[in-house]
Amino acid sequence: MSKRVLIVDDEPDIVTFLSAVLEENGYTSTSAKDGVEGLEALRREKPDLVLLDLMMPKKSGIAMFQELRKDPELSHIPVVVVTGVSEVTGVDFRNFMYKQPLKDEKKFAETTGLTKYTIPDGYVEKPIDPDELIKAVKKALKE
């Protein structure tokens, strides 16, 4: 049985592209156009993985991700962020997420409420390289 992937992105062309790449590689996909729909779809469908854009209307990907990680029924579902945020903001989001020092993780968690589990399971920059996407998906699914 193929793994199910929920794509949460407000750009229909991106959703179509991601769906095609996933299906070519043996995955099935469904989609939601914002964080509100994304959380509803997560609770209803319990996918194996989420591909999540960050900048969306109604509820951002960041807010959706935080809610997902706080929900005991959803928190185990891996999330790969698929975004063009560095292109828009000039911030190297991948390095920001992965290279922040956690010298004293306990103190960090106590002061911020965040833990190492608050970091997404993968990151793919737009424009999307299909090979990089599938590599990130496989890694997040531990395939």
Give the % helix. Answer: 40-55%
Identify the overall geometry: globular
- Strand count, sense and closure of the main sheet? 5 strands, parallel
Oligomeric state of the chains present here: single chain
Radius of gyration: 15 Å
CATH superfamily: Response regulator
Order of helices and strands: EHEHEHEHHHEH
SS summary, helix count = 7
Task: Indicate the low-confidence ranges by residue numbers.
Answer: 87-102
The main sheet orders its strands as 2-1-3-4-5
CATH class term: Alpha Beta
Number of individual domains: 1
Terminal CA distance: 14 Å
Provide the CATH topology.
Rossmann fold
- Total strands: the figure is 5
- The fraction of residues assigned to DSSP E strands is 15-25%
Using the 3D structure, state the CATH architecture. Answer: 3-Layer(aba) Sandwich
Average of per-residue pLDDT values = 82
Structural class: alpha/beta
Outline the secondary-structure elements.
Blueprint: E1 4-8, H1 12-24, E2 28-32, H2 35-45, E3 49-52, H3 61-70, E4 79-83, H4 85-89, H5 93-98, H6 105-112, E5 122-125, H7 130-140
Parallel strand pairs: 1-2, 1-3, 3-4, 4-5
Helix pairs in contact: 2-3
Give an account of the 3D structure.
- There is one protein chain.
- With 143 residues, this protein is an alpha/beta fold.
- It has a single domain, classed as 3-Layer(aba) Sandwich (Rossmann fold), CATH 3.40.50.
- The protein is built from seven helices and five strands.
- A five-stranded parallel beta sheet has the order 2-1-3-4-5.
- β3, α3 and β4 form a beta-alpha-beta unit.
- α2 packs parallel to α3.
- The longest helix is centred in the first third of the chain and has 13 residues.
- The two termini are 14 Å apart.
